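Hi F.,

I've been meaning to write this up properly since the lab meeting, where we talked about keeping a consistent format for the predictions we share between groups. The idea is simple: the sequence comes first, exactly as it goes in, then the structure tokens exactly as they come out, then a line or two of notes. No screenshots and no reformatting. I'm using this chain as the first example so we have something concrete to point to.
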Amino acid sequence: MEMDAQTATYKALQTEVAMLRERESSLEEELANLRFQFEQLKRLVFGAKSERFEPEPADQLALFDMPMSTAPVEAETRVHVKRKKAGKSVRHPLPSHLPRETVVIEPDLDTASLKRIGAEVTETLDYRPAKLVVIRRERPKYETPDGQIAIAELPARPIDKGIAEPGLLAHVAIAKYVDHLPLYRQAQQFARQGISMPESTLGGWVSQTADLLAPLHHELARIVRESGYIQADETHIKVQDGQKKGTTHRGWYWVYHAPEKGVVVIDYQKGRGRAGSAKWLGLDYRGLLQSDGYQVYEQFARADLAACWAHARRYFFESKDSAPEGVEHVLHEIRLLYAIERQLREEEAGPAKRARVRAEKATPVLDALQAYLMNHPGLPKSPWGKATAYALTRWDKLTRYVHEGRLEIDNNLVENVIRPVAVGRRNYLFQGSHAAAQRTAVIYSLVATCKKHGVN
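Output, unedited:
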């Protein structure tokens, strides 16, 4: 009986120890998450946005980690010497395409009998403020022998019976969607030129401009769908809710980029669910599709899916405070991968050469990195553990670019397209309706494609 009691007590203690260890592990993960959130908050408020990993010196104290001390502190003086670059700075010549106004400055003497042997030319740059011009079209009337009135037809205008010419419509649209100047500020600019241009009028012009560009938007979409290689990403936009006054709906711009064609298409959808991309791209899409790993794209079962190393790197960078040594190693290996890509870009290598060089140089780096991550998984709920899981569960998609020379290593090209959208929404805050959001997507698509090809 006594032995049975001891056995039961021992088993109970074992159970209690196992529960305590499990609780300890859970608390460690919770502590790691809290530290991660705290560091993210510090970085958001005080830190730089760069993803470069530079270990802090061992003797440097962090802002929130300073020990409390009552001992006097000796002042430390550091002298920073700014070195001058060798040689003088060279001013680049002013662009040849700019119009020139020549001003001849004669010396203060009679030059009529002197022989000109040359000239010293100095070019400076001035600005002529943009101005509104009224186009006055006169159509003479004539009476024909049979008593009829003959008069020429007015040429077609972008907006029927509207006063805005193509140049003005383009200026308003570009000012809003490229220079991120809200319409009310544009109205203020026009007012300084002595003309009243209500914000509602400008808004109507933008809407009708987008309607005129809709056929181009459809053509861009056709080119992207048929390109065979699409990069995809999404970004949110606030849209006024017509059913609830004073509230906004969280809509989404779906961005599709054909890297080889340099063509961008932005499509507006009310949500970020599967229906948005399925409706635009079609579930039978069979080409290359590269994204950040968002689960929605998994529905394209016939597509050749690829992931983005920039997103994987970001997860590791954000976990640097929970596992600095591991992150330093991983980021070093990823830098090696990007060094290979940089060399290929400098050589302007084609798909065949990119696939060959990647197989030779990038594959060993990737194999070693995969082995390292598998041997250092970390706690599942810790930032390091989540970063490791993100990479390993998408490993086949992350390494697809090695075997497919057409693929980029990351989705940065499409993310660059999204940045102007993010800047714009900080200025105009929201779209007035779902229809307005789609019209904005039309203009953004054309503008982004023009930027890709250097078209003003």
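Notes:
The chain has a mean pLDDT of 83.
The CA atoms of residues 380 and 407 lie 31 Å apart.

If this format works for you, I'll send the rest the same way.

G.
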